[in-house]
Amino acid sequence: MAIDHPPDHLNTAPGLTTAQAQVRLAADGPNEVAQGTRRSVWRRLADMLRQPMFALLVAAALLYMLLGDLTEGLTLSVFVLAVLVLSFYQEGKSEAAIEALRQLTQAQARVLRDGQTQLIPASDVVAGDCLLLSEGDRVAADGWLLQASNLQMDESLLTGESVAVDKSPLEPQPGGTGSPMPKPPPQACVHGGTFVVRGSGQVRVTATGMRSQIGQIGLSLGQVQEADTPLQQQTARLVKVLASLVAVLCVVMVLTLVWRTGQWVPALLSGIALAMAILPEEYSVVLTLFPAMGARRLTREGVLTRHINAIETLGAISVLCTDKTGTLTQNRMTVTALAVPRVAGSSEPGEVLQWHTPTLGHASSTPAPAAATLSAAFHPLIEHAILASAPTPFDPMESAFHAMGKDHLSEADRTFGEGQLVQTYALSPSLKAMSHVWQFDPDDPHVVSVKGAPEAVMDLCHLSPGARAHWLARVADMAAQGLRVLAVAHSRFEGQSYPDTLHDFDFEWLGLIGLTDPLRPEIPQAMADCQSAGIQVIVITGDFPATAREIARQAGLPEGETLTGDVLEGLDDAALRERLRHVTVCARISPHQKLRIVQALQAQGQVVAMTGDGVNDAPALKASHVGIAMGARGTDVAREAADLVLVDDNFASIVRGIRLGRRIFGNLQKSMQYIFAIHIPIAGMALVPMLMGWPALMLPLHVALLELVIDPACSLAFENEPAPANVMRQAPRDTRTALFGARTIGLALGQGLAVLACVALAYAIAKLWPGAGEGFRSIPWTPVLDAMALTVELSEAQIRAMLFITLITGNAALILSNRAGGGQFWRSLRTPNAVAYGVIALAGLFLVLAIHWPWLSGPLQFEPPPLWPWLIAVASGVLSGIGVSVLHWAMSARPSPPQGRG
Q1: Which of 18, 173, 367, 800 is deepest in the core (most CB within 10 A)?
Q2: Is residue 664 classed as helix, strand or coil in its secondary structure?
């Protein structure tokens, strides 16, 4: 329903009890907008049966039955069912992985329940709840605004207008109950799905789920519709080319066989077998399964995937732009240095009173004090730093100020807990400082406290050039020690008409505060991994340049230039692109400048990953190839714009994600190369007999049998393949290079032809050897030769079984060779992959059953061959493995053509 009047419970005490919320949740249902429902089992089954492979299998089964061969028809039906179950299982794993990720990335909401602030899933919000909003939050439901502090909302999702809208609280209704209002004031309404750009507020929920405005217009926020990725587009083009080839060959084959034999049904069966042999239906399986399972693996590395398509790009990142605080550092701020003028109230050059904690090892003008004996000269600095912070701090830096006050200020000095916050001035790109206006006594002037970047606070205090240079030297000294440095000032103000900007206050300089945020212990190794992987790392921070450089040095970042926000503003796009080639640290950067950095790097041809946590980071996160939001300290706006969310805000998790992304793409490439290669001998066995006028060797039943081997091999076996040891010692792949370029297709084609050649060799030996074997009767070993049936002519069914032994052995060789990569065959055998070895073993066992178990061998037209054909078939398969490995090694040894990124 639309918000047309406040409900009766609007003016009750804030928040609900847990019991009340449960009752309303049961009555109204979850706070969810109707989405495209997850496909039912029957819908998934119907979609799968419409795929060409299954359509061909069903058509073949029907043709067998039309021919009157009920046994072969039923056998093929069983194979169809087995392939269907396997594909159904694999697709189910993909959907389950995606659904699990969707559950992990569900929005959260802060509400007042039982008189306490609780963080709950947004779907559990009910009418009557009191929502607590702060900057960066996404509103969970429609409601009335009860309290607000400088609240601005981004309602572009509903209105299309990108300009933020100011909001003001709802006026209390007379009489204590809500009265109908024909047209509610827009400034008092908030809507689900919109974002808090600035400020904070409290909202009483009036409509949830489909009753909200966003529900009425049928917009689903949780369902993300993605365009096809470059990889999917490349694969679709390849499949279209192959499908066109299949259509032509099948028509020619059917017409030729009909012309030769005059029989349509067997000709159609041969045509279906050829189509099934050539068409690589497995591509759709791996393109769905690999990203979904890869995203599931990423969750175990502390990285949530919001957009599955980002998996394709993750391993190709060439530039990683990371913030400093909380990502490289532990985000555990501690006040470790203070600097104030020795003469209170004076900011002019002169002796400065300093204090450092002993852990820094720096000399100080004042010894490190005990908690209760900190010199009174430092008290105003600490107190106004607290007053300029949130009363209930969330930011680690503001928490450090409060902790400092608790430890070092006496009860008499803690006046910051007794006043009323009456006005706030938020941090902005034009002024990197924030201020709070407090009222302590109605008869006294208001207290104005400001904290922020030293340069910004110096401007507010109108320091003389000499004083400014003096304090900037102090800032540089503290920053060079790896401290984050902030300045603090205060002012007085009388009246209720507050100025529009902080520049209209008359601020008095109080001094500097230095905070330490230790480096995460795993960062140096992660940074070394990035360097070995050819990834350029750029630290982007709003902190002082010297501080950022010191943290970058501790992290192991190579020497490079430092670019500040002021200098960046003076560069045009071309100059910025050139400058960024040599930059390792960007300091004093405003969030809106991140977007220019991303665009400049992309113009170089780089694949850019960008981290961010704030509302203003959203454009840069959206524009980057891989946007990475902070999970612990990030805003909802940043998380909505990002592709990945770091659960622990840790830079090392990003690097682990890149490593896993490279593994996923590498395994995907191996799998798709294997699929292309294995279809070559299958297609050859279907096509060559037709061209030569021989009896058909490959029937639809046989292709269905092979699908039971190929499907788990291309998906499960390769998906479980561990990353090679040198995966982070390779340069990022060029995303402009086709996955199936000429070289890759040539390698896959060569592998497939090698297996086909060995199948042909086995066929030739089977046809020619019995006559040649007669010459062995003159030697004493004739009984042994007779026992091996060396001179016995093989039947067509025995030859077919022999060729399938060669093909399955060659298939095992293709799996092992593509697992390994060039020149790594023997090493790969020592690399554990139980799934791959299990697939190979089960394929061999299934082949033995198909040849020796009459229930299967009859419909498949197999007969058990004697010992020597078995040995020759296995030897031919092993020979194909040797040929495939040599070819792989030779192709990999050739230098690749140079590929630049621009």
Answers
A1: 800
A2: helix
Q: Which of 732, 900, 734, 672 is nearest to 315 (CA)?
A: 732
Tokens of 855: 């229930």
Residue the block writes with tokens 């069966």: 269
Q: Is 831 exposed, middle or buried (0-12, 13-18, 19+ CB in 10 A)?
A: middle
For residue 423, the cross-strand partners are 437
Phi, psi angle pair for 863, to nearest 5°: -130, 140
Round to whole Å and give the CA distance between 101 and 306.
Answer: 7
Please answer whether residues 862 and 804 qualify as being in contact, where contact means their C-beta atoms are separated by less than 8 angstroms: yes
Question: Over the Cα atoms of the chain, what is R_g?
Answer: 36
Residue 134: name the closest of 110, 101, 154, 103 by CA: 110
- Residue ranges of the chain assigned to CATH 3.40.50.1000: 304-329+520-647
- What's the CA angle centered on 322, arms 318 and 328, to 5 degrees? 125
User: Mind listing the pLDDT tens digit for each residue in 719-775?
Assistant: 888 888 888 888 888 777 766 667 788 888 999 999 999 999 999 888 876 654 454
Read off the tokens for 424: 């706030």
CATH 3.40.1110.10 domain extents, the chain: 334-516
CB-based contacts of 206, cutoff 8 Å, min separation 6? 3, 6, 7, 10, 127, 141, 142, 143, 144
* Residues 875/867, Cβ–Cβ less than 8 Å: no
Asked if 16 contacts 128 with a C-beta cutoff of 8 angstroms, the reply is yes
Residues 839-877: tens digit of each pLDDT: 899 999 989 999 999 988 888 889 998 888 898 999 999
Asked whether the beta carbons of 858 and 71 are under 8 A apart, the reply is yes
- Give how far Cα 783 sits from Cα of 737, 779, 786, 788, 871, Å: 61, 10, 5, 9, 18
* 73, pLDDT greater than 70: no
The CATH class given to the 8-32+112-216 domain equals mainly beta
pTM of the model: 0.72
pLDDT, tens digit, 9 for 90 and up, residues 180-238 = 444 557 778 888 878 887 778 889 998 888 788 777 655 443 443 445 566 666 666 76
The CATH label, of 3.40.50.740, 3.40.50.300, 1.20.1250.20, 3.40.1110.10, for the domain at 334-516 is 3.40.1110.10
**Euclidean distance between CA atoms 608 and 658, whole angstroms:** 12
CB atoms within 10 A of CB 323: 27
| Number of neighbouring beta carbons within 10 Å of residue 848 | 13
CATH 3.40.50.1000 is the classification of domain 304-329+520-647: yes
Report which secondary-structure segment, H or E, holds 142.
Answer: strand 142-154
Letter string b/e over residues 428-460, b meaning 16 or more CB atoms within 10 A of that residue's CB: eeebbbbbbbbeeeeeeebbbbbbbbbbbbbbb
Distance, CA of 10 to chain centre: 41
**Tokens found for residue 710:** 């190929």
Dihedral angle of Cα 36, 295, 552, 473, to the nearest 10 degrees: 20
Tokens of 394: 């969330």
Length of the chain measured in residues: 902
Q: Does domain 277-282+670-893 correspond to CATH entry 1.20.1600.10?
A: no
Distances (CA, A) of 334 to 255, 381, 514, 719: 83, 15, 9, 45
Pull the structure tokens for residue 345.
């109230």
Q: Classify residue 100 by burial, with Cβ atoms within 10 Å: 0-12, 13-18, 19+.
A: middle
3-state secondary structure of 861: coil
Every domain of the chain with CATH number 1.20.1110.10 lies at 277-282+670-893
Query: Which segments of 37-176 does DSSP mark as H helices, in order?
Result: 41-49, 52-66, 70-104, 156-159
- As a whole-number percent, the residues of the chain with pLDDT over 70 amount to 75
CB atoms within 10 A of CB 30: 13
Q: Do 274 and 249 contact (CB within 8 A), yes or no? A: yes
Give the Cβ contact number of residue 782 at 10 Å: 13
